[in-house]
Amino acid sequence: MRVVSSAGPASPVIEIKQASKTYRTADGEVVALKPLDFTINDGEFIVVVGPSGCGKTTLLKMIAGLLPVSGGEITVENRVVTRPHRNVGIVFQSALLLPWRDVLANVMMPVEVKGLDKDTYRQRALDLLKMVGLGGFERKYPWQLSGGMQQRVSICRALVHDPKILLMDEPFGALDAMTREKMNVELQRIQRETGKTILLITHSIPEAVFLADRVMVMTARPGKVDAVYDVPLRRPRTLDMLSDPAFVALTQKIRAHFSDSHLD
C-alpha cells in the first residue's frame, strides 16, 4: 500500500483493524476484501474510490454493522461493531423516500423506528430541512421534488437522530452533472455546519478530491487499500477550484492507479 498522507491519529472515531470479508457461495469462498487497516478521525471527510466490485459498499455496510466482518474487527467510538448501531446515518444512491409520506414524515422515519421523542426531533427535522434549503417543503411529497431535492431529504433523514457518523454510498450517482456539482457544494457546507464525520463512496475521482480531507484508493477485487492521499485544498471549496493546479495534479495522480498493471 502506498500511503501519501500526513494525517495524525488524533481523536479516532472509526478504526478498521485487519478487517476482511469473505462470502461463502455454492461455488466456494469469494474474497471481497483483503485485511484493511485504516483510521478515520473525528470530523474528517473521507472519500473512498475504486473500481466496481472492489468492496467499497461492503466496507460501508461492515462499518454500519449491516454485514459482519470475516476477520479482524471494526470499532466505532472504541466499541467493536457487531450489529447496527444508532450513531450512524446512511445515505444511498437512491433517495429511497416513501411516496405516501410527505417530506417531514420521511425525515422523521428514523425517529419513529428508534423510538425517540417525536416532539423533540420534529423541531430538529424542521431545522435540518431549512438548513438544506427545503424550508416550506415539509408537506410536499417525493413526486413533487426534483432528484437533487429528494437527496437533500434523504440527507436530512440520515441526520435527524443526530448521529456522529454519516455513511454515503454513491449519493449523487443518479443525478445529472450540474445538479451533482451543486450537491457537492451543498454537502461540504452541511458537513462544515454540523461537524459530522463523513465516509463517502464514489466512482468519480474529481468528486472525491473536491469533497475529501483524505482520499482512500482501493484496488480491484479482492479490495485492499492501495494509497491514501491528503487533499491540499483550502475550505470552503468552490467549483472554481476544479481548475486549480493542485486539484488537477491530485486527480491525475489518483487516476493513474487505475491504469497500473497491479490493479488489473
Q: Helical element count?
A: 8
Query: Structural class, from helix and strand content?
Result: alpha/beta
Q: Uncertain regions: pLDDT < 50 for 5+ in a row?
A: 5-9
Under CATH, the topology of the largest domain is which?
A: Rossmann fold
CATH class of the largest domain: Alpha Beta
Query: Strand count, sense and closure of the main sheet?
Result: 7 strands, mixed
Q: Terminal Cα separation, in Å?
A: 16 Å
Fraction in helix: 25-40%
Report the average pLDDT across residues. Answer: 90
Strand order of the main beta sheet, please? 1-11-10-4-9-8-7
Q: Report the β-strand fraction as a percent range.
A: 25-35%
Oligomeric state of shown chains:
single chain
CATH superfamily of the largest domain: P-loop containing nucleotide triphosphate hydrolases
Looking at the overall shape, the CATH architecture of the largest domain is 3-Layer(aba) Sandwich
Q: How many individual domains?
A: 2
Order of helices and strands: EEEEHEEEHHHHEHEHEEH
Shape: globular
List the helices and strands and how they pair.
Blueprint: E1 2-4, E2 12-25, E3 28-41, E4 45-49, H1 56-64, E5 71-76, E6 79-80, E7 88-91, H2 103-107, H3 109-113, H4 118-131, H5 147-159, E8 165-169, H6 177-194, E9 197-202, H7 205-211, E10 214-218, E11 225-230, H8 245-256
Parallel strand pairs: 1-11, 4-9, 4-10, 7-8, 8-9
Antiparallel strand pairs: 2-3, 2-5, 5-6, 10-11
Helix pairs in contact: 7-8
